[in-house]
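In these records, each integer encodes one residue's backbone shape. Here is one protein:

___
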Amino acid sequence: MEIISTLFIAKAVIVAVFAVTLGVAAYSTYFERKVAAFMQDRVGPDRAGPFGILQPLADAVKMFMKEDFIPTNSNKWLFIAGPCLSMLTALMTSAVVPFGDKLEIGGGATIDLQGIDVNIGILWVFGIVSLGVYGILIGGWASNNKYSLIGAIRAASQNISYELAMGMSIIAILMLSGSLSTKTIVEAQQNGHWNILYQPLGFLIFLVCAFAECNRTPFDLPECETELIGGYHTEYSSMKLGFYLFAEYINMFISGAVMATLYFGGYDYLGNSWVAEHWGENVATLIGVGALIGKALFFVFVFMWVRWTLPRFRYDQLMNLGWTILIPLAMFNVVLTGFSIISGWLMIVSWVGVALLLVAIIVYDSVTYKKKKVAVN
């Protein structure tokens, strides 16, 4: 009976994690429209319910009611499998994110607020993210549309390029924590010892790579309407298109949760120990869940803010940034982290290294500008 109850609790936690992820992703569409309206001095959705809060439900009904069209010359099974795979991999990534510490439910039983607690959580994240590109590739190829195929190939090359820099930026985190477990990484950051204090450059690299992995502006070349119409999902309609769009918002939320886990203490917050001492561990844990979701939502807002602020790169600029700038910076960050660990001055060495790097970039840019000016004259 104890084994059965444990399995039931584990399944309930996984379902709850998926439900939170889906709910946040659904209303991210509403908040993106509101953010866009604010940026462009418009009202935004305000018809469906008070302040337009029922707009995501209206969008869902619209998607379900649209004609489910499958191109005649497409590979029908793969055409259906593409969006399903994208949705599945987007949801599976959330399984290893520790949304909170343990909840005590009486009788000595506890609930671990994490879908699955494995000692290779970071490898799980990268493995599932790598599989996500197959959903895009399969959908673009099965559509039998040249625009879709080019968009899918762009997405694959972009994701592979930026996964390298993202993985190398996380190596520095693993050097500090000594573990691949996301739960262990969060526990090492408790009481304000957040990794952002020791890894400012690593966080910046990870953030830029997260934009590219989610195909968000200014890295949305796989669905660049000026060249490729809708990109890899041009031929999709109804809920198949909805799955692709929904997967993008899920990936945004999960990327924010992963960044909060790796760099901003996860479910840690100011006054955590005081709350646990005076109000109990369960209250402190629930506030921690809210803290993690709040941090993740802040990064979702950053994704939206950047989308409605910056123009997209050209494709050659995108690839140049990934291969010739971010990967060398990630390698420099690994060396800098190793030196800071050996010296014992983690924070000082990290920030001094970043300052020296900025000075070197400014000097290099100034010299290059002068050379170009002389050449023009």
In short: The mean pLDDT is 82.
